[in-house]
Amino acid sequence: MPSRGRGSRDGIRLYTGTIPDYGTETKGLLLAGVSAGGPAEQAGLQKGDVIVEIAGQSIANVYDYTYALDLMKPDEPVTVRYLRSGEKRETTLTPRVRR
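Above: the chain's sequence. Below: its structure in token form.
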């Protein structure tokens, strides 16, 4: 999901390779999938995972996730806390500039 290039980053759009599930109400960001070869897949995230924190920001919905993207910088690894089958897990994701 790309950031919209807000803030003072001169229109830089971050790419994480996450594909949100917009049709399900859940606390966090439910992943409908991840882009092949993208940062999320490289971090080990997969369909069905629920991101609950990224880069120190709590994620309750897609709006929180979009806000967190605006705070992240390209090529700077961030910690992602997520749930898989109800189990809390953690990984590191390195967002890239969308080309």
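The chain has one domain: 14-94.
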